[in-house]
Amino acid sequence: MSEWIMYHNPRCSKSKETLQILKDHGVDPMIIEYLKLPPGPKMLRHLASKLGVEIKDMVREKEPAFKELELDLNDEEGLVAGIAEEPSLLQRPIVLRGVKAVFGRPPETVKQLFKEEDLERAKEIAAAKATPAQDSESSQEEKTEPEQSES
After folding, report:
1. How many CB atoms sit inside 10 A of residue 67's CB?
2. Residue 48 — φ and ψ, nearest 5°?
3. In the annotation, is 12 catalytic?
4. Would you write out the chain's pLDDT as a tens digit for each of its 151 residues?
5. Of 12, 53, 84, 125, which one is the catalytic site residue?
């Protein structure tokens, strides 16, 4: 099982940006598409604990379902039941690593979960991506140098 878990919505731009930051740092998280596999009440409480927030901080109040379900931010049980019933209400993305978790809003927030070795790995990945381009440029230069004739 991956050390990294991401509650992901592939149609959400912030979620996609957060995933790209992880991949740029060599992280291949276990992806949970929470709209297809919604977290139950116990998992929602667990996520809130790892995020260090209250359930009401995990709710997307502007989603139409918030009004349709007549949810109240002061009713934690109602919010948990509402998110479990309508997972589009869950703030996204959520990235977990070990005992910590963050919302990927803004996407750069995910960097709070990185350790020093992750940052070093990201530098190595970036350098490896840059190296082939530089090699092909230098080989092109070698091919285009004029040949000197022996006269």
Report:
1. 10
2. -60, -40
3. yes
4. 578 999 999 999 999 999 999 999 889 999 999 999 999 999 999 999 999 999 999 999 999 999 999 999 999 999 999 999 999 999 999 999 988 999 999 999 999 998 876 777 777 777 887 776 554 444 444 444 444 444 4
5. 12
